Q: What sequence folds into this?
């Protein structure tokens, strides 16, 4: 999180995060880290921001994200937001994937990667956790 200066989220993930982190008082280490970055939420239905320092992206999502990535700054983090991530992958706007794999079977669920999108990512690192969860870090291979 120290290298993140912006969150890019879909509306449902944004609302969940905003409700959890916006009320945290200054001085809460986790709240401070989550509330500090700028927020960009992709939504046509959100009337007004509910989390500090938020910009709502209503139209031209792909062009808006390209412009955001072209600005100087550090990293843009997307958490959850599966529909948004699928669109970003389809338009070659994802540089890295940080995935957590849980040793749990729930049946059907959301697809991690959209159908018809062919991208090449190289595994950079794996991190096993005592819970059995494994963190995977992939970086985009270009060329």
A:
């Amino acid at each position: 999180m120290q290298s993140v200066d912006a969150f890019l989220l879909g509306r449902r993930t944004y609302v969940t995060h905003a409700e959890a982190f916006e009320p945290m008082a200054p001085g809460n280490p986790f709240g401070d880290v989550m509330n500090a970055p700028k927020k960009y939420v992709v939504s046509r239905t959100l009337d007004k921001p509910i989390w500090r320092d938020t910009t709502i992206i209503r139209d031209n999502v792909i062009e808006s994200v390209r412009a955001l990535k072209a600005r100087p700054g550090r990293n843009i983090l997307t958490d959850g937001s599966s529909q948004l991530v699928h669109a970003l992958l389809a338009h070659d706007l994802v540089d890295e994937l940080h995935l957590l794999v849980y040793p749990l079977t729930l049946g059907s669920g959301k697809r991690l990667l959209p159908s018809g999108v062919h991208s090449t990512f190289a595994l950079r690192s794996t991190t096993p956790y005592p819970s059995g969860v494994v963190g995977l870090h992939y970086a985009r291979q270009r060329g």
User: Anything to note?
Assistant: The mean pLDDT is 91. Strands lie at 4-10, 38-42, 54-57, 75-77, 96-101, 121-128, 134-140. The radius of gyration is 16 Å.
